[in-house]
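agent> fetching stored inputs for the s-citryldethia Coenzyme A docking request
agent> found them:
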Amino acid sequence: MTDEIYKPGLEGVIAGDTDIAAVEQTSLSYRGYGIGDLATKTTFEEVAHLLLYGELPNSSQLSEFRSTLAQYRALPPELVQALRLIPTDVGMMDVLRTGVSMAGHFDPVKGDSADDLRRRSVWLMAVTGGVVSARHRLITNKEPLDPKPGLSHAAQILYQALGEDPDETATRLLDLTLILYAEHEYNASTFATRVVASTLSDMVSGIVTGIGTLKGPLHGGANEAAMNMLLQFDSPAAASAWIHEAFVKKHKVMGFGHRVYKNGDHRAFILEDELRTLAAKKDQMNWMEIYDAIKDPMVNEKKIFPNVDYPCGLTYYLLGLPVDMYTPLFVCSRVTGWCAHFIEQATNNRLIRPRSRYTGPAAREVTPIGQRS
Ligand code: SDX
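agent> prediction call returned; pasting C-alpha cells
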C-alpha cells in the first residue's frame, strides 16, 4: 500500500473531521467558543446544548432543554433494583457501565433521527447523573432520593447523592468541572464511541463503550489515580521524596502529561486557580503544599505539565466527594461530548477500520494433530 501510515497509538494522525471542538497547544474551543469564555460565562446545561445542538441556547431554549432533562431524571425502578443487586465493593465506573446498559432496555426515546439522537443524549445526561447519585446513596446505606425540581444539573447530582441542598461553592465548582470535562475532540473514549457509531450500532452501545474506555488510568481514571497518589502523603517532604523516587524509577505520574498538550492543559490552568481559592477558603492550604510538591518538580525538572485530572481530583476531594465518584462525574460531563460525536459520525459516516502491521510467524503449513509434538 503506497499511502501506508504507521503511527503507534495513532499519535498525531488526523482520523477525521469534526465541527465540535478544536484542541490546540494555544487554545481549546467548543464550536468556536474559547474554554475560558465558556467557563466564566455559561453553565454546563448551556454547554451541553451547544455541543448537541451546535449553538448556545437563548433563555427559552435553555428552559426547554432543562425541562427535557428534568422529564428524564427519575430512573426506571427496575434499574434501581439492578443497582441494589451489584455488590457494594464494585467500583462506581463498573456500576455506571452496567447502569447505562440496563437503562438502555428502558430507553424512552424511540427512533434514530438526528433529533431523536439529541433527545436520547439528554436522556443519557439524566441517566448518568441519576445512576451516580443513586448508587452513592445505596452504598452508604441510604435510599435513593427523588429528583428535586428547579435544581441545575450539577446541583441535582449533588443533592441526590448527598441528600442536602449543595452550597453555592460546591455547585459552581462541580458545574465548572462539567464544563471543562465535556468535550475534547478525538480523545480515546470519544474515538471509541465514534467507532461504534461508524458501524451503525446504537447510541447506548456507544456510550457504554465510552465509559469502559474512559475508566483507564491513562485516560479519565487519572483523576481518581491522582487523588489516591496525593492521599499517600502526610507532608510536602514526603511528596517530594516520592516524586524524585518516581523519576529514578521512571514511573508514570497520574494527572500529568497529555498526548496533545505539551505546554500545559488549558483546563488545568483554569481549574487550578479555582482549587487554590477553594483550599484557602476551607483553610486546607496544607493540601496545596503537597499538590505543589509533586507538580513543581514535574514542571520544572521534567517539563511535564498537569492535565485537567490533577487539579480536578483534589477539587472534588476538598468538596467532600468520595474518590470512587470522580471518574463517574467525568462521565456525567463527557457523555455530552460522546453523544455529539456519535451524532456527527452517524450523520456523515464512513466505517472506521484502520490497518495493522503484521509481525507474527511467517507462513507455515498445518501439521495434523496426531503428528504435533
Ligand atoms: C485525559 O486525549 C485527551 O484529550 C484526554 C483527555 C480528555 O479530555 O479526553 O484530556 C483526558 O485522559 C488526560 C490524561 C490523563 N492521564 C494521565 O494523567 C495518566 C498519566 N499520563 C501519561 O500516561 C501520558 O502523559 C499520557 C498517556 C496522557 C500521554 O502519553 P503519550 O502521549 O503516549 O506520551 P508518552 O507516554 O509517550 O510520554 C512521552 C514521554 C515519555 O518519556 P520517555 O519514555 O520518552 O523518556 O513523557 C513521559 C514518558 O515517560 N511522560 C511521563 C508522563 N507523561 C509522559 N512521565 C511520567 N509521568 C507522566 N504522567
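agent> quick read of the result: The pocket of s-citryldethia Coenzyme A is lined by residues 9, 184, 187, 218-220, 222, 252-259, 304, 307, 309 (CB under 6 Å).
agent> awaiting further instructions
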